[in-house]
TrEMBL record:
Similarity annotation: Belongs to the class I-like SAM-binding methyltransferase superfamily. rRNA adenine N(6)-methyltransferase family.
PROSITE patterns: RRNA_A_DIMETH, SAM_RNA_A_N6_MT
MF terms in GO: RNA binding; rRNA (adenine-N6,N6-)-dimethyltransferase activity
Protein name: rRNA adenine N(6)-methyltransferase
Region (Disordered): 1-40
Enzyme Commission numbers on file: 2.1.1.-
Residues annotated as domain Ribosomal RNA adenine methylase transferase N-terminal: 57-273
Superkingdom, natural source: Eukaryota
Enzyme category, top tier: transferase
Length: 373
């Protein structure tokens, strides 16, 4: 839940404490205070941001994308632009999507002369197409902008070619519609949107070529987990059905400012082209049941409370849509047992079933009219 902010913001600057005998913080705590005082731009608690500060790590991430001079890149969460400036050196165009206006201002300050979407745009509902040379205009009320000709007075063609390559979109990536066209996605991902980001990318059309994404290490290891390992899960199966995933770089917490409490990893995600003709809602719906307790038998998970009733309702809805007679005396539990016996998974456990096993099981359920969405 967003942190509450004061209703009134004051511009009055507080005097800095002076060193002296009467100041209790002047000597005994000066060392500890110096480590706690930071630039306000790095007060990142609100959005859970951790700025990647290690230039070597930034360079390795960009190199992993194998960028071409013709590539259009989408960067999610550019922060202060440490990755952005390195991407701009190699790509044709970069669209940076940032939720925090302070961070967007920092990116623009580093790469002057760009388009910024801030509010009221026909292209991006909820955003405005403004040409910014002064990045701090982002913090001005939009009503003030309307009373000036500021956004009309800039000469875009005075920008250097490198400056014209960047576009900054201020907003929530998960809710942004439509996404810009891109061939490569690079992201130092805010950890709270890790899963939504992955599935938003996998559902995007047209397909992109590759995504280089940084996640919390535990999440990254679940993405690349294999059947039979402790981390193989519903997330692993759902992602690996549609993409090839590799863990390519381990990143220390000390590479960030402020340091997170966990280690991070960078993964390479390459979508399978063409994508398998499997409806995600169906595949995920079945996995939701059998991975609820992955070390229990598949049949045991189907016996959980409410599962059979849901499957019966889905089956009747599907048969009605297909204009098939709904009158069927066969209990749904009997159909489930029949399918599991025929495919040989009556005693199987989801923790050891691979993608082919899951697809075979889903197809067998569909053959008898059992659906999961």
């Amino acid at each position: 839940m967003p942190r509450a902010t004061p209703g009134k913001i004051s511009r009055v600057h507080q005097s800095a404490p002076k060193k002296g005998a009467n100041n209790p913080n002047s000597s005994s705590t000066s060392g500890s205070n110096s480590t706690q005082m930071t630039n306000p731009i790095f007060n990142t608690a609100r959005f859970g941001q951790h700025i990647l500060k290690n230039p070597q790590t930034c360079q390795r991430i960009v190199e992993a994308a194998n960028l071409k001079p013709t590539d259009k890149v989408m960067e999610v969460g550019p922060g202060t632009g440490n990755l952005t400036v390195k991407i701009l050196e190699q790509a044709k165009h970069v669209t940076a999507i940032e939720m925090d206006p302070r961070m967007a201002a920092e990116v623009i300050k580093r790469v002057q002369g760009t388009y910024v979407f801030n509010s009221y745009s026909p292209s991006y509902p909820g955003f405005t197409n403004l040409h910014a040379r002064n990045p701090y205009f982002l913090l001005w009320p939009f009503s003030r902008l309307l009373r000036t000709s500021l956004f009309l007075s800039f000469d875009f063609f005075s920008c250097s070619p490198a400056q014209r390559k960047l576009e900054v979109v201020i907003g929530d990536f998960v809710k942004l519609e439509p996404l810009p066209y891109f061939e490569v996605c690079i992201s130092n991902t805010p950890y709270q949107i890790s899963s939504p980001l992955v599935f938003r990318l996998l559902s995007h059309r047209p397909l992109f070529r590759v995504a280089i994404l940084m996640f919390q290490r535990e999440f990254a290891l679940r993405l690349v987990a294999r059947p039979g390992t402790a981390l193989w899960s519903r997330l692993s199966a759902n992602v690996q059905l549609y993409a090839k995933v590799d863990n390519i770089i381990n990143v220390s917490r000390n590479d960030f400012r402020p340091p997170p409490q966990v280690e991070s990893s960078v993964i390479r995600l390459v979508p399978i082209d063409p994508p398998p003709p499997v409806k995600f809602e169906e595949f995920d719906g079945m996995n939701r049941i059998i991975f609820s307790r992955p070390n229990k038998t598949v049949r045991g998970n189907f016996q959980a409370k409410g599962v059979m009733k849901m499957l019966e309702q889905n089956r009747r809805t599907w048969m009605t849509a297909q204009e098939m007679p709904v009158k069927d005396d066969t209990p749904i539990s009997g159909l489930v047992d029949k399918v599991l016996t025929e495919v040989g998974h009556m005693e199987s456990r989801a923790a050891k079933m691979d993608i082919d096993d899951l697809l075979k099981l889903l197809s067998a359920f569909h053959d008898v009219g059992i659906h999961f969405s």
